[in-house]
Amino acid sequence: MKIGITCYPTYGGSGAVATELGIALAARGHEVHFITYQQPFRLPNFLPRVFFHEVDVGRYPLFEYPPYDLALAVRMHEVVRDHQLDVLHCHYAIPHATSAWIAREMLREGGADVRVVTTLHGTDITIVGQERSFYSITRFSIEKSDAVTAVSHYLRDETYRAFGCVGSDVQVIHNFIDPALFDRAQHVFPLPSEVVQNRRVLMHISNFRAVKRVRDIVKVFARVNAEIPSLLVMIGDGPERVEAEDEARELGVAESIVFLGKIDAIAPLLAGADLFLLTSDNESFGLSALEALASGVPVIGANAGGLPEVVTNGVTGYLCAVGDVEAMARASIDLLADPVRWQAMSDAAAADARLRFSQDAVVAQYEALYERTVAAFPKPSHVPA
Ligand code: GMT
């Protein structure tokens, strides 16, 4: 099959999932075309059957807000037409699914067609999509997609609750991990021993948006560090990073925290972590938590959104009420103080991630969805280039 994939190419779980999916599909013999404004961050420079098509929005001075969604629609139209794609798979509803709808309308004008599959990832439904400026176009774009998936049951239910979309059959296809990559036995922790100093390592990875509650990460850490000498490794970057830095200074733990910024290769870092913290207000899935579990790192987090579908409370980690930093710290301290229980939880985390979220099984679900979607409509008849 020939599949176009559009995602946000910079840091973030949806871009990571989209890219890993494309790489896995190509490894299974499909031809994959990434269509976006920048080479996706997890995409190597060359892979057989993988192509990258850059979207250029130009620089016309009249455009205070360059219309990326239109430039994307044009590029999608060209790539489908020139490479005879069967499917356009959009990750994150806006503007990607909207651009795909425009591209499909343009193709139909020329007597061609393509199937549009949209995967909902999180804030496209829970935050941005519900803003007044975007609500109706988000609902329209979901309803006009030929198939829609959500990364958790929580997100599917939230889509129906917030948008209706009763005519759309939103299917749950969870995010996934490559079990060979997220295997702590395969990596050497890259942080030097002078930095770690035999302390326990707590870790957080995110885009440091408000929804992540990064001050809570620091508050939990400060309480743990007061009882068990620890190091907090913060990976990623975003607008709330300064909040975390302020909190660290206010609580007097700045010297025990390292901010590593945006890093592509996180598996070696996760391999050296003792606990992973994810305190978000809402997390539709929590890909970073899944990658931690797969690496044998128990997760301490907030019992919100889709995270309970990923972390089994009491088995692979502990989930507490949003904002309850005392409970999160207590759970962390108790677990770190009990090496037998930590090891059992680490083993359970790695095993459960492999059992429920392995790449092969999940990619096969997407393949089956593409096949059903293409079969449900007449085969596209493409216009020659
Ligand atoms: O919605 C966002 O905040 C960004 C988005 C992303 O691109 O990373 O994250 C969402 O998609 C991820 C991949 O499916 C999920 O693991 C994250 O839980 C989800 N973020 C939120 O729901 C806040």
Task: Spell out the key features of this protein.
7-stranded parallel sheet; Rossmann fold; 6-stranded parallel sheet; binds ligand GMT; 385 residues; globular; 2 domains; alpha/beta
Description:
With 385 residues, the protein is α/β, with parallel strands linked by helices. It folds into two domains: 2-176 and 359-376, Glycogen Phosphorylase B (Rossmann fold), CATH 3.40.50; 184-356, Glycogen Phosphorylase B (Rossmann fold). It contains 15 helices and 13 strands. It has helices spanning 13-27, 68-83, 96-109, 123-126, 135-144, 153-163, 193-196, 214-227, 241-250, 267-270, 287-294, 307-310, 325-336, 339-357, 359-375; strands at 2-6, 31-36, 50-54, 87-91, 115-120, 147-150, 170-172, 200-205, 230-235, 257-261, 275-278, 299-302, 317-320. The strands form two sheets. Strands 3-2-1-4-5-6-7 form a seven-stranded parallel sheet, sandwiched between helices. Helix 2 packs across helix 3 (96-109) and helix 11 (287-294) packs across helix 14. The radius of gyration is 21 Å and the shape is globular. The two termini are 19 Å apart. The mean pLDDT is 96. The structure holds ligand GMT. Ligand GMT is lined by residues 8, 12-15, 17, 121-123, 151, 175, 209, 211, 280, 282-287.
